[in-house]
Each structure stands twice: as C-alpha cells, then as structure tokens.
Specification:
Elements: H1 17-27, E1 37-40, H2 44-53, E2 62-65, H3 68-76, E3 81-82, E4 93-95, E5 99-100, E6 106-107, H4 114-122, E7 127-132, E8 145-149, H5 154-163, E9 167-170, E10 172-173, E11 176-177, E12 185-190, H6 197-205, E13 210-213, E14 215-216, E15 223-228, E16 231-236
Parallel strand pairs: 1-2, 1-4, 2-3, 4-7, 7-15
Antiparallel strand pairs: 5-6, 6-14, 8-12, 8-13, 9-12, 10-11, 15-16
Helix pairs in contact: 1-2
The structure holds ribulose-5-phosphate.
C-alpha cells in the first residue's frame, strides 16, 4: 500500500476563492444582452467579470461604471464607458457583494463604491450579484456595514449607530480618513443584526449627513451567481 492516489478516484483539489471569483465572473457573461450597455460594479469579483467582458466587447455598446477603478479597468481593456446621465435604462447590472441573504438583500461598500453602485443598480432592470459562497448569510450584519457620510456629519451618524447597539468606526487609509470617489467619508458599523433590511435602509437613508447606507434592499439582487466547491450555483429571488 502506498500513499499515492489513483488519479481516477482522487477528489479534485478545492478551488481557491480567486478561482471561484473567476468562475462567477465568466458565468455573468450569460446575462449580458448583446447590443446593450452593461452596468458594471466594483471589486475583485467584478474585476474578473470585466476581464471576461473584454472577450465580447465587440458585441456590446459599452458600460456604465460604478467607480473610478472600474472605469479605468474597462477603458484599459477597450470597453467604452458612458455617463449614467446619458443612458436611460440598463438591462443588467453586474456587481459583487460583501453579504447576500436568501432574499437577494445585500450589504455592499467594502470597496467604498456603494453610492455609485446604488445609482447604477437603480437604473438597471436586473441586478445580477456575483459572489463566492462565503458571502451567503442568513441575516445581514456580520460584515461591517459601510455607510458613506458627509464629513461634517460623521460624529453624529456614528453616535446614532451606537444608539442602535452598533459600534461605528471611521474608515482610514494610510492613517487618514478614506475619501470616496464622491469626496466623502466611510463609517463601518459592526454589531448590527439587520433583520428587516428594507426598514433599516429606509430609516438610515433619512439620517442627516448619510449619503448612502450599504444595505441594498430597495436595489436587491434578482439573481445571484454563487461560486461553490461544486461549481456555479444560480439563486433567483
Ligand atoms: C464595493 C463593493 C463590492 O461589490 C464588495 O465589496 C465585494 O467586493 P469583492 O468582490 O472584492 O469581494 O460593494 O464597494
């Protein structure tokens, strides 16, 4: 008896998180409507989608992008980027998530692009979320909730989250407050259990100084392409 494995019966090595992201990024191409402009999100999973989209760039008009980073990647690959104001509706918006629940509600903004992501999602007929299975949760609130705030309201907004039982921290970059593409700050909130995402999003969105809360319930996903050990699983909501 030896330790060597029979190649016919050996289990395939588990896919890395990076490979799962590549798989779902490629699978999202099936939702791109030829001849259309595509809504494009932000993040490491979306970067895989953008790379895949480049293989069919001659079949689409271009993209509306949700961040400076995605715009730069799209343009570098020869995909035209349109201003969202010049496009009335998008057939599909493809984006990642920090968390997604069993109803398609999400927490987003880990990449600080939540405001533009919500805008492009709102002008799209369908939100297709691409994520690896670590992002699927029963109740939103495990991942720190990003909230984009106008700097002069930061302390007040943080205190309001503390009053709700959360713990709020200003996001830093290189020791300084991170500044978003919109010139604002990000507060990350832990310790929340978001059991009613619609009510939570409606409430926090009205607090003075909140630009965007990272709960996407009004702009929830209709489809999630989830990268799992056994391949891409399609969830529909
Ligand atoms: C950026 C986002 C991203 O979609 C989210 O953070 C997931 O990113 P990744 O694909 O890198 O895990 O909301 O603001």
């Amino acid at each position: 008896m030896t330790n060597s494995m029979n190649p016919d019966t050996a289990a395939a090595p588990a896919l890395t998180q990076d490979q799962l992201k590549t798989l779902v990024g490629q699978a999202a191409l099936n939702y791109v409507v030829p001849g259309d402009i595509v809504g494009v999100g932000t993040g490491s999973t979306v970067n895989k989608f953008i790379d895949a989209l480049a293989t069919m760039k001659d079949q689409i008009k271009g993209a509306v992008s949700s961040s400076v980073a995605s715009t730069e990647r799209l343009l570098a690959l020869g995909i035209p980027v349109f201003d969202s104001n010049d496009v009335s509706r998008l057939s599909v918006y493809i984006d990642g998530a920090d968390e997604i629940d069993g109803h398609g509600n999400m927490v987003k903004g880990g990449g600080a692009a939540l405001t533009r992501e919500k805008i492009v999602a709102a002008q799209s007929d369908r939100f297709v979320c691409i994520a690896d299975e670590s992002k699927l949760v029963k109740t939103l609130g495990v991942f720190p909730l990003p909230v984009e705030v106008i700097p002069m309201a930061t302390r007040r907004v943080m205190a309001q989250f503390v009053a709700k039982g959360g713990d709020a921290k200003l996001r830093l970059k290189d020791g300084r407050p991170l500044v978003t593409d919109n010139g604002q700050h990000i507060v990350d909130v832990t310790g929340l259990q978001i059991t009613d995402p619609l009510a939570f999003e409606a409430e926090v969105s009205q607090w003075p100084g909140v630009v965007t809360v990272g709960v996407f319930a009004f702009q929830r996903a209709q489809v999630c392409l989830l990268g799992t050990a056994s391949g891409v699983k399609t969830l529909t909501f």
